[in-house]
């Protein structure tokens, strides 16, 4: 391990997780490394949980790019998180947020560098960051994500480094770190290819800030990977059929893809395995096993990610794919969620959603408009800047009790103008160049669940005749669908 | 005039506006030059109106970046527009759209290059473009805007050029045209300063497409410029007070500003004249007289715009400001509304709105959710990518009958996460780093109209207790405010 700690001064800071965790006091603002589901600290986190279980008063404000269920689950279960930014990654924590016990500063990942530089999450007392080690110059070598760790360390008074020997050493070769200067000194980001390297492999850190170095060996493991279902396969088939047309229209150019999180996103990634597409490229905030399998099978040629979800199989792929450094890049969040890069690469954003309305407005974060599931994350920003913005969503949920295509979204994360194409298991609505009425007709006819097509069309007819205007909506009636669900167990109400 | 038509072949295409207009047939898709309120064709437009008034069947689908009331007014008054993209610039046309007589493909300006390249507005039969002339290589020299004229000409089967000798020749020296390649060939845009020139001064055009060249001398004139009122002055004073703090926090760096359209935007620009700020820079989709006055007085150092609203006074400023080319750049829309450039420059976006809700979601386009006023335009995209996103809005309208701060916006163009600061005549709510509850409390306490503070607070209390969740909303109650307005003449309902 000593090889990973270059100086005697730093070696003197080696401590137990307990000692390091003891420096975190009740009421502090704590930052943690991590991006997507990867690269968060584990030993100090577990020590915090043990302290709490032993009866210590300990609640903190937590800022981390990690969208890792494990982290929010074990801290949330002990009520250690009093305030959280910018994501919420577990049902436990979401439930606390929705119950009013935890304050949640939901924010887009793309905004975090700017807000952290501005100090808008308050004084950060300590940043706990996972690393493989330090390089000879004392720079930090991250693990399975880079994210916004440098911004967190810059903003923090103190840094606790967790050297995790269970993270594979090969990760060291995959990083590419380019930290753009803030305006007015910002320059163009030279990235023009998904697999291009434009930076360094380690993060600058002020050695005086490093208070503790904790050695751990805690493997990072995602939960079981969802398998596709007949439903997700039908959505994927429609997507691929659409993409084949699109590629032909575009002179054979297949765009790089962005996929989000969750079982539908994973299932779509898995389905690409059986598609006719080759040389797939992905440019994502996070990548998990199904996308890595595309690299293993040779279907994918280039992956760029902010975080790499680890599993035994992913570790095996990291070992087995020849010259993996030429095909897989782990980048910092300044680049993965950057409008400049997303726009230039012409990314095809494949977003999933909770519900979408007849005009194409998307709710990706709040059930029934008030109960947060996860947060806006990076999806809206990808959709805004993509070369092609696709929303993939099953037409209904809960055995048909819920239509995922609703008259009016109960909460809006992505505006209709940032959605090009909607795909459900029933079909594809290509909205480009359509006006609001045409969009609604296309979404209802091609995408809606059969049982809801009539009610949606009746809603549109009524909204058009009773309320009229360029964007006919009839909120009283629209929100009656949620009341129906609550009172009658189905959005169809008594007709169900 | 011949000096402006370089070849004999082109000189043979000189025709009357009537002859050119006669080539536009009923049902065609017609593109027109123009961006913001500037640079649209006038002679052919008037000839179309005369044809219609003479009894010709003539309705067209109109695609233009112009947001010019004159154009939409005179075409709209004769019911010549059957379909319009991507903006709506006049009350006449808005009324036709809201009445269902005109189809309106509302779209963000930033999306237009991509959608035009993809052919999503159908086959464009003819592009009518205003120009000062041609250069020696046959490239077109635009007038007071550049916008998306090149994309329109590329997409069109035929081009009608309107050489307008009433547009000042000095405009020729102000253009800077840089047309980024589409993905996958896109490269970084080298722009790092508001007043930097990175391109050429003329637009490529296929000479074989040019069917007619019409000579005209029609001055382009905006309507009267609004003067500030005591209300707009109070909003401006709060803005300047906030900006002074912000500049101090940022080490003295004053960001470049983006302002939108309308009387509040113009009044704020005018108010900068009496602020303490110097060396102001503006990076806008459109600039009108109040911003040009800042250049005339020496308050502003650098202006970049997609379109320059003309007036006698603006022409005078163009003549009087020494070396104006060093201070004023007219760019194409690919650059003015580009996320890459907006983000890199750290633009402070100053958007106005119809209404904003307690969480900071913004409706900038649709009254009561259904009746469009103008369209989403560029505002949302500036807000999404800005270094600082400010919404400026009077707290109430119609003598207090309407609260511009509502429980839940009836239509959403900008999501709360893309709004940093809300400013009304009552104060400033800096939302950065706040959670939803804190955002709501700040907006109600600092910005709301006094008469609505109680009702808004009661709404929040009820939504929190009855509905709860991370983002408490109670749509039935929220939309009751619009019903109150309709039934009782005030959002306060019977209590008014």
Write structural notes for this entry.
The structure is a homodimer of 496-residue chains. The model of chain A has no long low-confidence stretch (mean pLDDT 96). Chain A has an eight-stranded parallel β-sheet. In chain A, strands 12-16-21-25-26 form a five-stranded mixed β-sheet, with helices on both faces. Helices cover 32% and strands 22% of the residues of chain A. In chain A, strand 17 and strand 18 (362-363) form a beta hairpin. The first copy, chain A, is globular, with a radius of gyration of 23 Å. The longest helix of chain A is centred in the middle third of the chain and has 20 residues, at 230-249. Chain A has two domains: 2-216, Glutaconate Coenzyme A-transferase (3-Layer(aba) Sandwich), CATH 3.40.1080; 230-495, Glutaconate Coenzyme A-transferase. The first copy, chain A, is α/β, with parallel strands linked by helices and 496 residues long. The interface between A and B is large, with 81 and 81 residues.
Q: Which percent range describes the beta-strand content of chain A?
A: 15-25%
CATH architecture of the largest domain in chain A: 3-Layer(aba) Sandwich
CATH superfamily placement of the largest domain in chain A: Glutaconate Coenzyme A-transferase
Q: What's the number of domains of chain A?
A: 2
- Low-confidence runs of at least 5 consecutive residues of chain A: none
The CATH topology of the largest domain in chain A corresponds to Glutaconate Coenzyme A-transferase
- Strands across the major sheet of chain A, in which order? 1-11-9-6-2-3-4-5
What's the count of strands of chain A? 26
CATH class of the largest domain in chain A: Alpha Beta
Mean pLDDT of chain A: 96
Q: Could you tell me how far the N terminus lies from the C terminus of chain A, measured between alpha carbons in angstroms?
A: 64 Å
Instruction: Provide the structure class of chain A.
Output: alpha/beta
């Amino acid at each position: 391990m000593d090889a990973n700690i270059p100086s005697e001064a730093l070696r003197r800071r080696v401590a137990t997780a307990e000692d390091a965790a003891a420096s975190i006091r009740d009421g502090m603002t704590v930052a943690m490394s991590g991006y997507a589901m990867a690269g968060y600290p584990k030993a100090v986190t577990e020590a915090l949980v043990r302290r709490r279980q032993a009866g210590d008063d300990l609640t903190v404000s937590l800022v981390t790019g990690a969208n890792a269920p494990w982290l929010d689950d074990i801290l949330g279960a002990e009520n250690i998180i009093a305030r959280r930014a910018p994501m919420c990654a577990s049902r436990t924590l979401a439930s606390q947020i929705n119950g009013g016990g935890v304050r949640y500063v939901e924010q887009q990942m793309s905004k975090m560098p700017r807000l952290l530089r501005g100090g808008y999450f308050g004084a950060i007392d300590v940043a706990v960051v996972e690393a493989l080690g330090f390089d000879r110059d004392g720079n930090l070598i991250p693990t399975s994500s880079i994210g916004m760790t440098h911004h967190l360390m810059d903003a923090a008074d103190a840094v606790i480094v967790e050297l995790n020997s269970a993270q594979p050493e090969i990760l060291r070769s995959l990083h590419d770190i380019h930290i753009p200067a803030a305006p007015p000194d910002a320059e163009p980001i030279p990235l023009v290819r998904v697999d291009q390297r434009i930076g360094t492999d380690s993060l600058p850190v002020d050695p005086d800030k490093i208070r503790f170095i904790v050695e751990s060996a805690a493997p990072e493991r995602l939960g079981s990977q969802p398998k596709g279902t007949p439903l997700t396969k039908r959505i994927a088939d429609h997507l691929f059929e659409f993409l084949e047309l699109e590629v032909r229209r575009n002179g054979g150019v297949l765009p790089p893809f962005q996929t989000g999180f969750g079982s539908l996103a994973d299932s779509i990634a898995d389905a690409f395995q059986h598609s006719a597409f080759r040389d797939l490229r992905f440019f994502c905030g996070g990548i998990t096993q199904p996308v890595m399998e595309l690299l293993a099978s040779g279907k994918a040629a280039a992956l760029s990610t902010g975080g790499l979800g680890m599993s035994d199989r992913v570790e095996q792929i990291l070992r087995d794919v020849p010259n993996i450094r030429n095909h897989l890049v782990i980048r910092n969040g300044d680049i993965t969620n950057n409008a400049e890069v997303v726009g230039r690469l012409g990314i095809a954003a494949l977003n999933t959603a909770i519900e979408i309305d007849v005009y194409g407005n998307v709710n990706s974060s709040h059930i029934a408009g008030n109960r947060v599931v996860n947060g806006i994350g990076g999806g809206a920003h990808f959709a805004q800047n993509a070369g092609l913005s696709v929303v993939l969503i099953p037409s209904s949920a809960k055995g048909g009790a819920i239509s995922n295509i609703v008259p009016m979204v109960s909460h809006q994360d992505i505006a209709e103008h940032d959605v090009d194409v909607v795909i459900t298991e029933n079909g594809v609505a290509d909205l480009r160049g359509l006006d609001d009425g045409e969009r609604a007709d296309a979404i209802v006819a091609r995408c809606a669940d059969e049982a809801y097509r009539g009610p949606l069309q009746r809603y549109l007819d009524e909204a058009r005749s009773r309320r009229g205007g360029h964007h006919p909506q009839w909120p009283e009636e629209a929100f009656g669908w949620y009341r129906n669900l609550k009172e009658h167990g189905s959005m169809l109400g008594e007709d169900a």
